[in-house]
Amino acid sequence: MQEYRILVGVIACFDSHFLLLRRSMQETFMPGAWGIPAGKVDFGEDLEDAALRELSEEAGLVGEMDNLVGYSFFMSEKDGKAIHNVQINFRVQCKHQDIMLDPSNDLYEWVSFDSLEVHQCDEFTKKALRQAI
Are 11 and 29 in contact (CB under 8 A)? Predict the structure, then answer.
């Protein structure tokens, strides 16, 4: 039986920069990868509420929803089971840039829109960021 997951991704913006987080090396899924705040939507949770919650949990930021900017599909695996993931991405305008990381991330960087192509984040993340620009 296949499992399906709905995720939200947050392109957090502040002063013409967007937030990238580096996943802790202790994480089992993509340790050391740079990405945007993202996570699973709880059953019955509104997508916009889930995006703002993930932003707060992962980075300690409060923001205002700007708009839905796109979506991506990807496959993953957990305990030998294939998971079909749909990630819905939102642009959020942050009220401040003071980060308080949760343990799932160990570094952050506010990156200018102009420097996206030279950053070490993967193509999946770059695609999500391009959706917001």
Answer: no
Find tokens 């990238």 and name the residue: 20
Q: 38-49 pLDDT, tens per residue?
A: 999 999 999 999
Q: How many CB atoms lie within 10 A of CB 129?
A: 23
Residue with tokens 């990630």: 87
CATH number of 3-132: 3.90.79.10
Total Cβ atoms within 10 A of residue 63: 22
Residues listed for the chain: 133
Side-chain-facing half-sphere of 34: CA atoms under 13 Å: 18
**Tens digit of each residue's pLDDT (9 = 90 or more) over 13-25:** 999 899 999 999 8
